């Protein structure tokens, strides 16, 4: 068994009698980590750093008509048919001496080898309501990097728990938190955990799963989608919520879920002794309320729809979905892009977060630095982003340069 392999599935499987509904769950390794965000700042180097996974047609600008399966030559995701891109903010540890080191991302469930990455889920609701796969050109963002306090939403709604962090209490396989589903469980917080988590932290990002049926995108990349309605039961979380879509957004999409696993264990001996919280998201967010995820759909043809119509394995194992073609660890790991922004973002303690991202504690929304002089040109391609994880042994402790 791999490190934390059963975290989510044990939670889901044990909490309620299992209902057969479609689900695929698969690992993707890192494509590149760089200051790009083709949705928010197309054509410009982005204000903050992201880790990107998926097809290698990812670029500074991604026109809505781009045919990603056609333009890509490889993908870092487990299924050969998936050239989508998925990205999230990178996490840093702020050393008591004021410098920052990227927190390594360990392979989560089947992340396909050494290069961190994420685990991606596409889930049909437990009601077995038919889901409509995202159309070509579809993209969306969930969360807002500028937030520094909890959004004023109904605390029992899916939206209130869509973005959370799981603090692992132990390094062991049978962590007590495994009995709790992601989002609204007893071990999850909307803010970054305010203590050292001995087994690391998992970021849980659920996207809205209801679509207006018309727009592939909208100016803020959010208003064409909405969360499903209903109340989150803390025992079953969002995955198994049976709420329906609002009339304004009637089309049920697969529930898209990202898991990112941050291995905070190497920082144990450097943890501040004054009780302060040293972790900070790449946009200068030490609260975690600015957690966000971006998605650009890029599945080939009707492959995602076929998977959602036919792949009912309760655990979502890739092997159990014959509709799709599995790539080997080697194939997904050799798909990489060189960063096009010539700056050091990881592998050593850096004096400031990449871009212009001073730490802003809130509770008001963060503001952009007006006269940012950070590098804003592309084209210089230093060596490919170094791996932050040296081996496939997922429990190995990575010792940063101290
Ligand atoms: C990214 O866009 C640039 C500029 O249009 C282009 O030269 C480059 O080939 C693109 N890279 C990929 C991987 O598509
Ligand atoms: C996006 O824009 C819509 C309409 O202007 C607004 O109602 C909504 O709150 C915005 N959503 C986000 C996440 O900014
Ligand atoms: C930023 O630029 C504006 C004008 O563009 C100037 O008035 C202001 O003093 C500058 N601020 C800093 C901190 O350099
Ligand atoms: C901060 O601490 C780290 C870890 O000990 C060390 O590598 C780095 O050189 C230090 N930086 C400064 C500016 O003291």
Topology:
Layout: H1 7-15, E1 23-28, E2 30-34, E3 50-54, H2 68-71, E4 85-89, E5 91-94, E6 100-102, E7 118-123, E8 139-143, H3 158-161, E9 163-167, E10 188-189, E11 201-206, E12 210-211, E13 225-226, E14 251-252, E15 255-262, E16 279-281, E17 292-296, H4 303-310, H5 329-333
Antiparallel strand pairs: 1-7, 2-3, 3-4, 4-17, 5-6, 5-16, 7-15, 8-17, 9-10, 9-11, 11-15, 12-13, 12-14
The chain binds 2-acetamido-2-deoxy-beta-D-glucopyranose (4 copies).
The site of one 2-acetamido-2-deoxy-beta-D-glucopyranose has 4 residues, from loops.
What does it look like?
The protein has a six-stranded antiparallel beta sheet. The protein has a five-stranded antiparallel beta sheet with strand order 2-3-4-17-8, with no helix packed on it. A three-stranded antiparallel beta sheet has the order 6-5-16, with no helix packed on it. The chain is globular and about 55 Å long. The N terminus and C terminus are likely disordered. The chain has 402 residues and is mostly beta strands. A hairpin with a 5-residue loop joins strand 5 and strand 6. It is built from five helices and 17 strands.
| Helix and strand sequence | HEEEHEEEEEHEEEEEEEEEHH
Number of helical regions: 5
Name the hetero compounds present: 2-acetamido-2-deoxy-beta-D-glucopyranose
Computed structural class: mainly beta
